[in-house]
Amino acid sequence: MAAPEPISPRSPRVAAAKRLARRNFRGKERRFLAEGPQAVREAIGHRSGDEPTLTELFATAESAERYADLVADARDRGARVHLADDAVIADISQTVTPQGLVGVCRFLDRPFAEILAARPRLVAVLAHVRDPGNAGTVLRCADAAGADAVVLTDASVDLYNPKAVRASVGSLFHLPVAVGVPVEQVVDGLLGADVRIVAADGAGTRDLDTELDEGVLGSPTAWVFGNEAWGLPEETRALADAVVRVPIHGKAESLNLATAAAVCLYASARAQRASGGCRSVTQS
């Protein structure tokens, strides 16, 4: 197979990819960037509706050689492949240590109604989450815990922020995600689908140990996670069936958002899954 053609730093394709660092341009084009071999590999295997999610791939010569099978797969599935120098890749990805591969992808979020129609049993809801790294990490935790979906409310960070995409480490392509849904609509929809709403908050009147002891986490559950600094506002907590805190048994002041989310989601996963139902990280 012929090698990818080199692309000029002044190419309109490079300029268009660089603009995807800006939220307004991402929204206009309905495209986002996925950086690194893991994210690109997941994007290649993903479809947005009837179309492949990955539309373009920029690769350095070193990466094109190192990941030749991945580059060939991207091209075979219809993506344009461009050979770019290190400076171009750095300019597009805007990271300190670029990984040599940057993909341009179609938006892949799903309508909230579609998530409800699938009758989810475990959902992570990000309400008022503003840090993209935390959003991506919670999405990764939800994926690892076997959640059925993630929902970002209209008060939360952009799902396609490059930092959020990187922090998800490919999990963005694994499970349905809805974006921009008002929190009241999220709660009403999930309650209508017989999903219990549990707000995770340090000021909760119940703790996670009690939830586990009483066996209530075995039912369909949506965990609502709030802002990194000030948690969930009172009006959002009031919408929940329960407000639950992660107990602090040691001297730590608190847990960060992503850690608390992992603890809560895995508690639900354990309660919902039969013994021996988990997958070893050594399995494919």
Features:
38% helix, 5-stranded mixed beta sheet, elongated
Describe the protein in words.
This protein is of the alpha/beta class. 38% of the residues lie in helices and 20% in strands. The protein has helices spanning 12-19, 23-29, 37-44, 61-66, 68-76, 86-93, 112-117, 132-144, 162-168, 183-192, 208-214, 234-237, 257-272, and strands spanning 5-6, 31-35, 47-48, 51-52, 54-59, 80-83, 101-106, 122-126, 149-153, 177-181, 196-200, 206-207, 221-225, 242-245. Helix 1 (12-19) runs parallel beside helix 6 (86-93). The mean pLDDT is 91.
Helix content, binned percent: 25-40%
- Element order: H for helix, E for strand: EHHEHEEEHHEHEHEHEHEHEEHEHEH
What percentage of amino acids are in beta strands? 15-25%
Largest sheet: 7 strands, parallel
* Strand order, largest beta sheet: 10-9-8-13-11-14-12
Uncertain stretches: none
Compute the number of helices.
13
Principal-axis shape: elongated
Structural class: alpha/beta
Distance between the termini: 28 Å
Number of DSSP strand runs: 14
CA gyration radius, whole angstroms: 20 Å
Mean pLDDT: 91
